[in-house]
Design a protein that fits this description.
The protein is mostly helical. The chain has a domain of about 210 residues. The chain contains 11 helices and no strands. The protein starts with about 35 loop residues before the first helix and ends in a 9-residue tail after the last helix. The N terminus is likely disordered.
Length: about 325
């Protein structure tokens, strides 16, 4: 009679040089006891939660933060799976995972709990990396817009015959000339300055609100975390640079200045569209992470203050910038 063959044992996981197995280990079980609960402090204001262990729907008596015991204990006993603050050995991977997951702000802020330890140094490093990526994105958008304008202009001149054939891709002369084509480097500098300072102006406005509300006990690091992981949306501005390049290359107008005006509008509209996205993410952070009673009102008022400050500054430095919207 045919005997069923025994299934082979699964292959063992490879090992590190130190002998430690490679793989994603399962999260250890959460240790939940009355003693463990009494040892906790409020993650926002550090007020002791001793004596609340048996409360089914606990809330911090000092700052009003609502929480569940399971989420606080889990965050205290386990690292966040990918957050840049918590994964020093995997800087590149954790940076891009944090940036990518931020595109789903509701899920991002629901999984990030205030009990996860705040590392202010890593937050500043993350902000610096986002600023570098923003500058690279703006330069890429600037170059794409110039290349698109030059491509359309050279095609127009070539068809006109009187100007003779003009360099087009993949001619290296075309890409070299695109660096000097057009002139809106000043706008690029204004956009970079605005995008770089916007998060810090937002942080200042939110700290003013914090000082005037019951949430005055909320730690600075938590507000900083909300701002940093909301306004990293500026790193995606290269997409608007790409749109600017496509607009100037394939737009309906043959005139060179029309193309450059279109590129300028795309970059400016891209800036304020990204601000809108970042504001939505900030609202989600105040709702799901800090759990304010009126999160959207707080965030919107802060952004109104920042918009007025930025508009006043830009109007004083370069009044012509507002002509881009007309």
């Amino acid at each position: 009679m045919h005997q069923p063959q025994e299934e082979p044992d699964p292959a063992p996981l490879p090992e590190h040089p130190e002998g430690e197995k490679v793989g994603v280990p399962e999260a250890p079980p959460v240790l939940d006891s009355a003693e463990a609960r009494d040892a906790l402090n409020c993650p926002l204001c550090k007020y002791s939660l001793r004596g609340l262990a048996n409360v089914p729907h606990p809330r911090c008596p000092e700052c009003g933060y609502r929480f569940t015991w399971a989420e606080l204990l889990t965050a205290r006993q386990n690292l966040h799976p990918y957050l840049f603050e918590h994964h020093l050995p995997g800087n590149v991977r954790s940076f891009f995972l944090t940036l990518w997951h931020g595109l789903r702000p509701a899920t991002f802020w629901a999984r990030l709990n205030a009990a996860h330890a705040v590392n202010a140094t890593r937050l500043h490093v993350y902000t610096a990396l986002v600023t570098v990526l923003l500058a690279a994105s703006l330069w890429a958008g600037w170059y794409l817009a110039h290349a698109g304008a030059l491509y359309a202009n050279n095609q127009h001149l070539t068809r006109a015959l009187w100007a003779g054939p003009q360099p087009l891709p993949p001619d290296p002369a075309f890409f070299a000339r695109a660096l000097d084509y057009g002139d809106f480097g000043g706008l690029k500098a204004h956009v970079l300055l605005t995008a770089s300072t916007w998060p810090w102006l937002t942080l200042a406005a939110l700290l003013v609100f914090r000082a005037s509300m019951r949430r005055a006990g909320v730690g600075f690091g938590h507000v900083l975390r909300c701002v940093v992981y909301s306004f990293d949306a500026f790193a995606w501005m290269f997409a608007f640079g790409l749109l600017a390049g496509l607009a100037v290359a394939f737009g309906p107008e043959p005139a060179r200045l029309r193309f450059i005006d279109a590129a300028q509008r795309y970059l400016v509209v891209g800036l304020f569209t990204t601000v809108g996205l970042a504001t939505y993410r900030l609202g989600q952070s105040y709702r799901r992470y800090l759990r304010f009673d009126h999160p959207w009102a707080t965030v919107i008022i802060s952004q109104v203050l920042v918009v007025l400050s930025v508009a006043t500054f830009l109007a004083a430095v370069d009044p012509a910038i507002w002509e881009l919207f007309w």
